[in-house]
Write a structure and sequence with these properties.
Order of helices and strands: EEEEHEHHEHEEEEEHEHHHEE
Mean pLDDT: 94
Strand content: 15-25%
Helix content: 25-40%
Radius of gyration: 19 Å
Bound molecules: zinc ion
Number of strands: 14
Structural class: alpha/beta
């Protein structure tokens, strides 16, 4: 995530359309920006909840209020998750404690699911609720279990952490940048009017945004290869050279991103490494 995410504030409850309301996860921070967006989807008194935030106690109270004020409702149809990172699934427990044993649907992945029993969904799954359909798109890269959801009623995409409303996505060490870029490219084949991201505001120029994300990754590719060709061998030195516009406290996240690029290059046969020393081949 870049510094453009920092200082960005969003309302706790935001009505975005007839069928979509955002409830903010109450978990702001360097990795989450203003916090995780969770979405009430559907026009009935019993909408579904897409993502659950981190599990902070005040979130459930705001969710309850949002449900009442925007739907006149008391309960949820079910929970759907974009992926298993804690700032998306961490709230499952407290939401279920408040609203009962709701079904939780996601693409299963032992590594992140832990003890959580999930109802399996995947590429091609359709989840319906009054006034809305969510179509699963498997979009690995940020995490292997990552699903986006296309909603034809608004030509909209719930993009999870694949595309964010501000800043750029971090590729964690168990992610895969090659997959990530392929997932981004795939979005360009969709007919899209808007993107509801898991962090930051709604994106109303989806194509431009996706193309900017692809261009950003391409630029980083070039900068890192250039650094290696100039004899820079270590990740911290590459970060210092490339991320000149990013404050130092975000350099750990930047290092993770550089590593994701290096590992992609390694798979592509472009670089090799001896311990922490990376070089072109
Ligand atoms: Zn994530």
């Amino acid at each position: 995530m870049t510094d453009s995410m920092i200082g960005l504030t969003m309302p706790d409850i935001g009505v975005l359309s007839d069928r979509v309301t955002v409830i903010l996860g109450q978990n702001p921070g360097p990795a989450t920006g203003p916090g995780t967006n969770t979405y009430l989807v559907g026009t009935s008194r019993q909408p579904l909840l897409l993502d659950t935030g981190q599990g902070l106690p005040q979130y459930v109270l705001i969710l309850e209020r949002g449900l009442r004020e925007t739907r006149g409702g008391e309960t949820l149809q079910e929970i759907v998750l974009t992926h298993g990172h804690m700032d998306h699934q961490g709230g499952v427990k407290s939401v279920r404690e408040r609203f009962g044993p709701l079904r939780v649907s996601k693409k299963p992945w032992d590594q992140l699911d832990g003890a959580l029993e999930v109802s399996a969904i995947d590429e091609g799954s359709e989840i319906t609720t009054d006034g809305a359909t969510l179509q699963g798109l498997w979009t690995p890269g940020h995490s292997w279990d990552h699903l986006c959801f296309y909603m034809p009623e608004e030509k909209a995409l719930f993009s999870g952490d694949l595309v964010l409303g501000a800043g750029t996505t971090v590729i964690p060490t168990d992610g895969d940048l090659g997959d990530y870029v392929r997932s981004l490219r795939r979005l360009l084949t969709l007919e899209l009017d808007l993107i509801y991201p898991a962090h930051g505001p709604v994106i109303r120029n989806p194509r431009e945004k996706i193309e900017a994300y692809l261009a950003h990754r391409q630029l980083r590719d070039e900068q890192i290869l250039e650094g290696l060709r100039d004899g820079v061998r270590r990740i911290p030195a590459l970060v210092k050279r490339i991320y000149t516009d990013v404050p130092e406290f975000l350099h750990d996240a930047a290092a993770m991103s550089v590593l994701a690029h290096l590992r992609k290059f390694e798979r592509e046969g472009l670089v090799e490494h001896d311990g922490d020393d990376w070089s072109p081949r």
